[in-house]
Write a structure and sequence with these properties.
Among the domains are: about 280 residues, no CATH class; about 80 residues. A hairpin with an 8-residue loop joins strand 2 and strand 3. It is about 50% helix and about 15% strand. The protein is elongated, with a radius of gyration of 49 Å. It is α+β, with helices and mostly antiparallel strands. The chain has 20 helices and 17 strands.
Length: about 750
């Protein structure tokens, strides 16, 4: 082993010893006891021997399990739902896709069952764990993000952590005792290191100080040495460590000048030439149209020809100026593409390697260094180092779901406060049954030698038995047990009520109709008030943990799903309907080169939120009542309401109803068509009637127009006749005036006279 690897192995073992503190072992013992009480193993071997020696029954009445199961139901009634919110428009589209991907991976991992078991661990052991991991062998080696449950007794967090999600922890460790054959299946390429691994602490990881023989339950530590491989041979047990630690990793935000390739550059130049030719052709068409408009204005006399020539010349100058400006714009864009700057984030080590290549170094415009949290995973088997890498996530992939946080990594379970009351209840029932046995099976006090002891012992409790005693002795007398105080009979009832009060789960919530209110609304109110404590726990602890889980899943998913991938997701609210989601869809240019991606999942920026109350149960009757009101108001149809009911064969009903609706729509369509045709016939009939009237009106109009034309012609003829007569009269008048003027001139005396 290299010296560096040995140092890492020693550090891992040292961290485990620090995590396995006294506080940790106390928590293990308390959680182990709670787990045993939950499973009904509530008496130790010594307690059972003591009861048997006293002649008392050793049974228990387990009131813890139904309480915990009901709390578990309220917390896991529905599947957790996450909502992703994108930073920009394109990111919003990818964010909507992310919600579907989360549903797909949750379903693929059987997430509902895992979540239910984790909530049970939280209620019974104080904390449950969900691990987000990547299975590299799924999807033909491309990998799938998966959810796993981790046994709480196998998780060793930093004991100094004070955050209930371990965000401030220096490390979180998973430690198990595993057979080498199982580890080889996990790491088939590391068989040599695994086979040569030596272990000094395997089998020492006990979860409880109680002897395994004291309980009928079997725990992982009890079977640590009973491991065999596929050939039936015993496989050696070795200690296995997964140590997750948080580090500040140096990154570089690099800006690189990425010019296009020769083929892409040639394509860009062709595109520029085509764009310029199209623009020039458009400008020439505009000039020709302007010239035609000006020529038409000259013909109409609106402008003179010299003005038209000036306008055409100005239009030509503006067109050529626009062409030159367009050339400058296109060339500038081409230059921008020639000097395209891309932004990439990489590790400092990767940046240093790139800078060693001078050709690549010359393309780097700027580089900004910064630090981010990253998780380092170290896997150690015995004294061998198998794995030591930095993961592409910022927080620990092991998410705790605690019940009652204590300010330390060792929370209190919901069972722990109930143990004392459960012991009180068991003791009370044992005393009651024991007293009843004594009352039903009398004990006798007799003088020594007065009775045949074997006969009395055999028949003293038999109905109708005749028992003999010897003459001269005092007759045997029965010994009656002391009656129990009447207050003692209320102990069991009080203990049960106390357990319900402590847990916040009452009998009515468990289906006890005798303890519930008589009215339906009273039952709803009881259900609402009774679940407030559980809802508070869900809101303050479980939902923040689920939201934290969603963010870690996001980091894993964006690093895993880099290739084009199609997700097929079954829609729970739509019967037999499948939703198809695609990410990283390549976009190609004319040369077949991938130039971009649609739904680029890896680079999208978005936040993940848990939908509050998504896991809590819904009151079916209240919900159906609301759906019925919505149906009556017309907000939803009957099919939507039927989907939310528990009606048997609702899929077949919906299918038949769909067929009925199609036939009904077809019938209504045909009826509408017939109605339209009948309306058309009526319209045509009205048009025929109206056409006769219209023809008469047209005939009358033609007659009127004829009369008008004849009148206008007569008027014109009269006007011409009147004009001619007027002209004749004017000529005659002019001739008369001229003759009169001549007469007057001839009658005047001669000027010479």
């Amino acid at each position: 082993m290299a010296r560096g690897n040995k140092k890492i192995v020693d550090q891992t073992h040292d961290l485990y010893r620090k995590a396995n503190s006294t506080s940790r072992r106390k928590w293990e013992n308390t959680s182990q006891q709670s787990y045993e009480f939950f499973l009904g193993e509530q008496l130790t071997e010594d307690e059972q021997d003591e009861l048997r020696s006293a002649g008392m029954p050793n049974f228990t009445v387990n009131r813890i399990t139904p309480v915990i199961e009901m709390m578990k139901f309220f917390a896991t009634a529905n599947t957790p739902r996450w909502q992703a919110v994108g930073a920009e428009g394109s990111d919003s589209d990818v964010a909507a896709v992310h919600s579907d991907i989360a549903d797909y991976c949750w379903y693929n991992s059987n997430g509902d069952s895992i979540y239910a078991q984790v909530i049970q661990d939280s209620l019974v052991k104080g904390v449950g764990y969900i691990q987000v991991d990547v299975d590299p062998n799924q999807d033909r080696g491309l990998g799938e993000v998966v959810f796993k449950r981790v046994e709480p007794f196998d998780v060793y967090p930093d004991p100094t952590s004070r955050d209930f999600l371990f965000r401030d922890a220096s490390y979180v460790m998973i430690r198990k005792d595993l057979p080498k054959s199982q580890i080889e299946k996990l790491f088939p390429s590391k068989k040599r290191q695994i086979n040569s691994a030596n272990s000094d602490s395997a089998g020492q990881n006990n979860y409880s100080n109680r002897d395994a023989l004291e309980t009928d339950l079997i725990f992982p530590a009890d079977s640590a040495g009973d491991s065999y491989d596929s050939t039936g041979e015993e496989s050696p047990i070795v200690d296995y460590y997964e140590c997750y630690s948080k580090e500040k990793i140096s990154f570089m935000n690099v800006f690189i000048n990425m010019p296009p390739g020769p083929d892409e550059m040639e394509e860009l130049k062709k595109e520029v030439e085509i764009n310029l030719k199209d623009y020039e052709a458009e400008m020439m068409v505009q000039i020709e149209e302007k010239a035609l408009q000006l020529a038409e204005s000259v013909q109409k006399g609106e402008i003179i020809e010299e003005r038209a020539q000036l306008e055409i010349e100005r239009a030509r100058r503006e067109a050529f100026a626009g062409i030159e400006q367009q050339k400058m714009i296109v060339l500038n864009k081409l230059k921008e593409k020639e000097s395209k700057i891309e932004n990439r984030v990489m590790l400092k080590e990767e940046y240093d390697i790139l800078m060693e290549d001078k050709q690549i170094a010359d393309t780097i415009v700027d580089a900004i260094d910064f630090y981010e949290d990253r998780i380092r995973l170290t896997i150690v088997v015995g004294d061998k180092l198998l794995y030591n890498q930095v993961l592409p996530i910022k927080d620990y992939p092991i998410i705790p779901f605690v019940y009652q946080y204590t300010g330390t990594p060792f929370p209190v379970s919901a069972v722990s406060p109930l143990v004392g009351k459960q012991q009180e209840l068991n003791k009370a029932h044992q005393i009651l049954i024991h007293n009843a046995n004594l009352a039903s099976n009398l004990r006798w006090m007799y003088e020594e030698g007065s009775v045949p002891e074997d006969e009395w012992e055999k028949y003293s409790s038999a109905p109708g038995a005749l028992l003999k005693y010897r003459q001269g002795f005092t007759p045997p007398t029965p010994v009656q047990p002391l009656p129990l105080n009447q207050a003692f009979y209320g102990i069991t009832q009080n203990a049960r009520q106390d357990m319900e009060y402590v847990a916040g789960v009452y009998s009515s919530m468990q289906g006890d109709t005798g303890s519930g209110p008589e009215t339906y609304r009273g039952l709803l109110q009881m259900d609402e008030y009774g679940t407030r404590r559980i809802k508070q726990w869900m809101q303050n602890v479980i939902e923040p943990a689920l939201e934290h889980l969603g963010m870690i899943f996001k980091d894993w998913a964006q690093d895993t799903y880099l290739a084009h991938k199609v997700f097929r997701i079954v829609q729970p609210n739509n019967i037999n309907e499948e939703k198809v989601v695609e990410i990283n869809v390549p976009i190609f240019n004319d040369f077949g080169d991938s130039i971009n991606k649609w739904n680029d999942y890896a680079t999208a920026q978005f936040d993940v939120r848990i939908i509050g109350g998504s896991t809590l149960p819904l009151n079916r009757w209240a919900l159906l009542e609301e759906y019925f009101k919505w149906y009556q108001s017309g907000l939803i149809d009957d099919i939507a309401m039927l989907q939310e009911t528990d009606v048997r064969n609702k899929e077949a009903i919906i299918k038949r109803k769909s067929v009925y609706m199609q036939l009904r729509n077809k019938l209504e369509e045909m009826e509408s068509l017939v109605k339209d045709r009948n309306g058309t016939i009526e319209t045509l009939e009205r048009q025929l009637v109206q056409s006769g009237i219209k023809q008469k009106v047209q005939d009358a109009d033609m007659s009127i127009q004829k009369d008008v034309l004849e009148s206008e012609a007569a008027q014109s003829s009269y006007r011409d006749k009147l004009k001619n007569e007027t002209n004749t009269k004017m000529k005659e008048l002019g001739m008369a005036i001229g003759a009169r003027q001549r007469e007057i001139e001839s009658s005047k005396p001669d000027a010479k006279e």
